[in-house]
Amino acid sequence: MxxxxxxxxxxxxxxxxxxxEVRAAEAAGADWIHxxxxxxxxxxxxxxxxxxxxxxxxxxxxxxxxxLMVVEPERxxxxxxxxxxxxxxxxxxxxxxxxxxLHAIRQLGKRAGVVLNPHTPExxxxxxxEDFDLVLVMTVNPGFGGQAFLPAMVPKIRRxxxxxDQAKHPxxxxxxxxxxxxxxxxxxxxxxxxxxxxxxxFDQPDRAAAIRALRAAAA
Length: 219
Ligand code: DX5
Ligand code: ZN
Fold this sequence. Notes:
By secondary structure, the chain is an alpha/beta fold. The chain contains 9 helices and 8 strands. The protein has helices spanning 18-27, 50-59, 77-83, 98-107, 123-126, 154-164, 181-190, 199-202, 207-218; strands spanning 5-8, 33-38, 64-69, 87-91, 111-116, 134-138, 172-176, 194-197. α3 links the parallel β3 and β4. The chain is globular, with a radius of gyration of 16 Å. The chain binds D-xylitol-5-phosphate and zinc ion.
């Protein structure tokens, strides 16, 4: 019985062996593959573009969860969709016309996701509640792997859960940042069901054991 879905973030993978790392994550029991796209503007770091999504697509049948940490995300949706993304998530803080951007993602046939930075109130979601399929609550400031989990986000996860349970359609609640066996329980109790994890999977020699440890902590 799987209480939660586990989405390993390739940010912490050995990128020289990307395809092997993705296949290893799939073999280890991952549910989704999380791809962190960073533009050096919305966040200080620069990472992956559509070419990497295409490479991940070629390596796995698992859904690819693309987290866009970029300014003007609406400019890049088509390219990432064509590269093989299954879900596209955009930050509230980077989207001037959020409802329109979410609509555009659904028009591409993809799961539309909204991401909240730590300081961004969940109230933003209320007015677009019927326009998205996933909400991602950041539990660190986006930009880097391996940062410490922010416990102040736990009440926000709970409030997001209450809010999305009022929607007429199912909405996924995902968390990202500092997720490890010692933080899983609190986020799952608060209502999270999709767990992104970078360091706590790819920094472990045995990825299957790492994913099992996350699931066990959630159960
Ligand atoms: C951070 C990224 C995360 C990152 C998480 O900006 O959005 O997906 O890979 O890494 P860990 O799990 O190591 O905190
Ligand atoms: Zn992410």
